[in-house]
Amino acid sequence: MPAPDLNLLVTLDAVLGEGSVAGAARRLKLSPSAMSRALARLRETTGDPLLVRAGRGLVPTPRALELRERVHQLVEDAGSVLRPAGKLDLAQVSRTFTLRARDGFVENFGAELVARARREAPGVRLCFVPKHDRESTSLREGTVDLETGVVANATGPEIRAQALFRDRFIGVVRTGHPLGKGRVSAVRYAKGRHVAIARRGPGKGPIDEALEPLGLARDVATIVDGFSTALALARASDLIATVPETQTGNLRAGLHSFPLPFAAPEITVSLLWHPRLDADPAHRWLRGLVREVCSAALIERA
What digits encode the pLDDT tens for the residues 57-75? Predict the structure, then answer.
């Protein structure tokens, strides 16, 4: 059975709404003869005359009366689907957004994000999940709505990215550590015992590569996969942690931080999302909210 011509619904809505061929033709901007042909098709498709002669006018059949409201609602619903989304009413949004981020992001920006979201969109709930890799699978599959991190080779080419802030690496030690006194040189830094951060186990990272031209190498005592774990070890020992400054602001409370005494690469932390959510009004609002909260926090610390 061939698929029905859904364009006939618009024609049927005009015919039943106007109650005349001439009126339907004017509404649809068709000639009377074209409208007559369209009515013939409708009669053939529905198996009903729909409009019949009564004196000088036309009257609807019982079948036409039965269809009139249903057809009109179908056409209205279809029109609303095809129209651009209207202005977002945050008070009416009821939705849970899942955000994936490295440790430190939630600790530094999460509380303000939750508070702002609550004030602006009371029906929105934020769900934060940890980020253990740079793969884009969760964004692609829709299990994560928004992500923060550094764009890398593992990031899918279709993923949208927008820079949030620049970050630099710093050294962190416990209060009273020998590196807390005097000038920290590259040699003093390298000679200390370090806790390295690597998602996939042993291997050279950007800090090791920055030391190589100086003929230096870190004495790595242990390797962990997160900033908070590295800082916890530094807090309880003489280990030196090297972490991004902005992302670990609150995590470093009570610890001594110092600039690295050699040139190390900076990183750009970005917002990441899948293009299918690019035009979604609520998602656009959330992206703007994250940008505003991060920007305000950075201004306060400056």
Answer: 788 899 988 888 898 888 8
SS3 5: coil
Residue 232 has φ and ψ, to the nearest 5°, of -65, -40
**152 shares its domain with 287:** yes
pLDDT value of position 16: 87
Question: 272 near 160, Cβ under 8 Å?
Answer: yes
**SS in 3 state form for 191-255?**
HCEEEEECCCCCCCCHHHHHHHHHCCCCEEEEEECCHHHHHHHHHCCCCEEEEECHHHCHHHCCC
Q: What is the mean pLDDT of residues 151-175?
A: 90
Query: At residue 223, what are phi and psi to the nearest 5 degrees?
Result: -125, 130
SS3 string, 124-158, reads EEEEEEECCCCCCHHHHHCCCCEEEECCCCCCCCC
The residue among 82, 99, 116 that closes a domain is 82
Asked whether the beta carbons of 160 and 273 are under 8 A apart, the reply is yes
Flag whether 58 is in a domain. yes
Both structure tokens of 59: 């009257």
pLDDT of res. 1 = 52
Total domains in the chain come to 3
Taking a C-beta distance cutoff of 8 angstroms, is the pair 150, 269 a contact?
Answer: yes
User: pLDDT grade, residue 213 (50/70/90)?
Assistant: very high
pLDDT at 214 over 70: yes
Q: Which helix (H) or strand (E) holds 118?
A: helix 111-120
Domain residues for 123? Answer: 91-162+274-301
* 193 and 129 within one domain: no
Contacts of 150-156 with CB under 8 Å at 24 or more apart are 150/267, 150/268, 150/269, 150/270, 151/268, 151/270, 151/272, 155/272
Banded pLDDT at 2 (limits 50, 70, 90) = low
The answer to whether 231 and 257 have CB atoms below 8 angstroms apart is no
Q: What is the CATH number of the domain that holds 203?
A: 3.40.190.10
